[in-house]
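Module 6 notes. Inverse folding takes a fixed backbone as the condition and produces residue identities as the prediction. Think of it as a translation problem where the source language is geometry and the target language is the twenty amino acids. Below is one complete input and output pair. Work through it position by position during the lab.
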């Protein structure tokens, strides 16, 4: 299976649009690389639950500045409350990460790493998908890294400039978590990764090739690396049955350019089956409410592998801020059947790493 990022026309208009990722995802245009100073989104009327308490970090560096083994310059002594931007030096290249720290977050802090879609950006994902409001309500630290040229090297030839140049995004994201851990005490039992499309495939790659994350929550994506030897983790996958870019059935998707090959599998149910095998889960139980079908498999040590299917939904982040300009170019409108950010955070809040798990040692 192989995949290649393909670029939709009208990038000059500033619309976040690509395949896979930004088109139809909703929200503002491509992310700037300068700090954002405006306040975060207000919490929703029915906020997600606060993160459960747990024991202190195991394996995450203690707070405090200092250079890392990969040569990152000393980070600020403390992450400020609200939005901020930092650089992370990895592989001799400075990369941008955007951070949101809610007021009153306590240590050891849970962390959510959110990976934007192709030709999106960290700020775009933060704003369009309302992660600041979720962080305020759930009291977790949220980080929104920028991909290399708005893309991630997610494996299997995906995607775009990052894949073509062989960028080591696994090293970058690993160092991002370590850098944050030198500034604030992180709870390694509650480090999570999320993403959409190209970013979702990168989230899967991180889960398959590192042991950093207790749970994964992705949307409108597939998995493009071998994951047979992955460290067990809880997994939530949200997908629309009518996604034309990363098809639910794993067949080749719709390219945005005549010269761009489509993304070709595996199917979304096959991805979930792979993780059920990794986690040693029981057979899934399925329920349907309206257009939403949920398949949930219970696994040892309290883990869960869950697939949420939205009938008729396309390539989008459910509950996102609509982007009329992207939709005018053929992008899918955000589904209103559920709020993906709320759904994913609730899943994370319920699935910290089991305390007795040998992988946390």
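Target side of the pair, the amino acids:
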């Amino acid at each position: 299976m192989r995949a290649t990022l393909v670029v939709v026309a009208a990038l000059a208009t500033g619309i976040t649009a690509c395949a896979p990722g930004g088109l139809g995802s909703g929200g503002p245009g491509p992310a700037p690389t300068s700090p954002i100073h405006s306040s975060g989104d207000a919490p929703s009327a029915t906020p997600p639950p606060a993160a459960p308490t747990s024991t202190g970090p195991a394996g995450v560096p203690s707070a405090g500045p200092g250079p890392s083994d990969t040569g990152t310059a000393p980070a600020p002594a403390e992450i400020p409350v609200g939005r901020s931007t930092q650089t992370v030096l990895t592989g001799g290249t400075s990369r941008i990460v955007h951070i949101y720290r809610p007021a009153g977050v306590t240590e050891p802090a849970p962390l959510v790493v959110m990976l934007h879609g192709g030709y999106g950006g960290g700020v775009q994902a933060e704003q369009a998908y309302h992660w600041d409001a979720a962080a305020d309500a759930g009291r977790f630290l949220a980080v929104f890294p920028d991909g290399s040229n708005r893309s991630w090297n997610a494996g299997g030839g995906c995607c775009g400039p990052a894949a073509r140049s062989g960028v080591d995004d696994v090293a970058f994201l690993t160092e991002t978590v370590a850098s944050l851990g030198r500034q604030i005490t992180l709870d390694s039992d509650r480090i999570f990764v999320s993403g959409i499309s190209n970013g979702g495939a990168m989230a899967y790659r991180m889960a398959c090739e590192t042991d950093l994350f207790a749970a994964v929550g992705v949307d409108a994506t597939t998995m493009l690396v071998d994951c047979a030897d992955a460290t067990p983790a809880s997994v939530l996958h949200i997908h629309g049955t009518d996604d034309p870019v990363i098809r639910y059935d794993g067949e080749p998707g719709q390219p945005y350019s005549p010269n761009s090959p489509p993304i070709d599998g595996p199917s979304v149910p096959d991805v979930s089956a792979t993780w059920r095998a990794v986690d040693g889960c029981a057979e899934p139980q399925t329920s349907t409410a309206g257009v939403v079908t949920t398949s949930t498999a219970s696994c040892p040590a309290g883990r869960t592998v869950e697939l949420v299917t939205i009938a008729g939904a396309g390539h989008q982040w459910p509950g996102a801020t609509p982007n009329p300009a992207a939709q005018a170019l053929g992008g899918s409108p955000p589904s209103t059947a559920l709020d993906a950010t709320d759904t994913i955070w609730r899943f994370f809040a319920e699935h910290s790493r089991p305390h007795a798990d040998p992988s946390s040692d």
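Reference fact for the lab report: The chain has a mean pLDDT of 81.
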